[in-house]
Amino acid sequence: MHNTVHIDEKWFYITKTSQRFYLTPEETEPHRTCKSKKFIQKVMFMCAVCRPVFDDDGSCLFDGKIGIFPFTELVPAKRKSKNRAAGTMELKPIQSITKEVVKDCFINKIVPAIKAKWPANASKTIYIQQDNAMPHIQDSDPDFRAVASADGFDIHLINQPPNSPDTNINDLGWFRAIQSLQTESVCNSVSELVNAVINSFNELSPNTLNKVFLSLQSCMIEILKVKGRNSYKIPHMRKDALIRQDMLPLNLQVPSELVRECISYLIEHGALSITDSLMQQLGVNAGCTNELEVMVHNLQIQGHEGL
């Protein structure tokens, strides 16, 4: 998972409609005002992260945080006020996120950030996983391909499975971690909100990001168990306890019996194109000797005969 960058968008609000405060008897209750709690000011951000890299001693070699980019623009103020004169450039959120806006973010922000922060000894073949939102561009976009294939990199866009938010690091827990820190800051303007979100992103530990990647692996195993459905619960691994015991695994192991069941399930439902691709990735051929490869090879032959 070290060569996959997860991206996703999220609205961050300048304040919440309700918050809980614990005060001493001497403290005054915080007072907040807004024009309407139905129209709280918000900014959309595009977040890009990949799995961090640690050495044998646990020191972080690469934090995996590519960047978080706000969809904002500078516009001149139309009227004067007591705070600024007319024509003063103000930071405003882009309310309509179109394909052109997303494409500009990919080409001018995300891809350059990946190239600037990518470890020198890491593979230059990188996959950017996005969801299936309509404004997103495709890997075949000529402008994106020109930037993605330059400077010795080979960057590709791939789509995550539809209706599966648990297969994206940002939705799985990273956004929640950012928002928990961001809501602790008092923001009165768009600029302050942008700074609060970026600072929260930078303050989070790479260990937090690595734990979310382990949660992703556990979710993938649960998805295999329910044959692709969403009827599962995210398992608790007690990762903090494992870290204290220095027993946190780098990767979770998938039971071989579960792999057998899933491949058999795909063949029974006629997904031969998927099983062909899976066999190519597993390196299955006529002269295979591994027990699992033999099983996959036999299952595919039986599947073809059954059809």
List keywords for this structure.
307 residues; alpha/beta; Nucleotidyltransferase, domain 5; five-stranded mixed sheet; 9 helices; disordered C terminus
Secondary structure blueprint with pairings:
Blueprint: E1 4-13, E2 42-49, E3 53-54, E4 60-62, E5 65-70, E6 72-76, E7 89-93, H1 99-117, E8 125-130, H2 142-148, E9 154-159, H3 169-182, H4 190-203, H5 206-225, H6 239-244, H7 256-268, H8 272-282, H9 291-306
Q: Order of strands across the biggest sheet? A: 5-2-1-8-9
If helices are DSSP runs of H or I spanning 4 or more residues, what is the number of helices?
9
* Global outline: globular
CATH class of the largest domain: Alpha Beta
| Total count of domains | 2
CATH architecture descriptor of the largest domain: 2-Layer Sandwich
Biggest sheet statistics: 5 strands, mixed
CATH topology of the largest domain: Nucleotidyltransferase, domain 5
Describe this structure in words.
The structure is a single chain. The chain has 307 residues and is α/β, with parallel strands linked by helices. It has two domains: 4-21 and 32-205, Nucleotidyltransferase, domain 5; 256-306, no CATH class. It contains nine helices and nine strands. The protein has a five-stranded mixed sheet with strand order 5-2-1-8-9. The longest helix is centred in the last third of the chain and has 20 residues, at 206-225. The protein is globular. The model is unreliable at 301-307 (pLDDT under 50).
